[in-house]
Known about the structure:
By secondary structure, this protein is α/β, with parallel strands linked by helices. The protein contains 4 helices and 4 strands, in the order E-H-E-H-E-H-H-E. The chain is globular, with a radius of gyration of 16 Å.
Amino acid sequence: MIIVCAVTGSTFVGMITGFKLLAKIDPSSPPHCVIRIDASAKPAETKVQVLCIAKIGLSEVDITEVDVVLDERYHAGSYGILDKQTIEAIEYGVRMDAFITDPVYKGKSLAGMIDMIRKGEIKGGNVLYMHLGGQLALNAYSDMENKVGA
């Protein structure tokens, strides 16, 4: 299982197309479960962007809307707006493993992953959490607790 944050969708579109091409080349390759956590609060726009990018070099039937699934539960209502769950996830990552995430992208997807594990939606096994940077955004959120819902 792979967990990735999605705003513009460029990272997970690469994953979708890569896995689709792998399946075409090697039909015996195992399926890949990718959970895409929306941090944009505009999932319809993200889906359109992803479908446009993904179809470059592929046929119309290779990538469809069925392939572009976003979990919309963790975007906190707006891009760049913090919520308590995101702050708790960021603090948890730092406390447990000096794992630093930003409040805009990775903090929201980390909050989603933690919540899904706690709810039993993600069972035991290997989970790859795609951490793709973003720590520089922390400078804009130096007083995170005071910015919840701001």
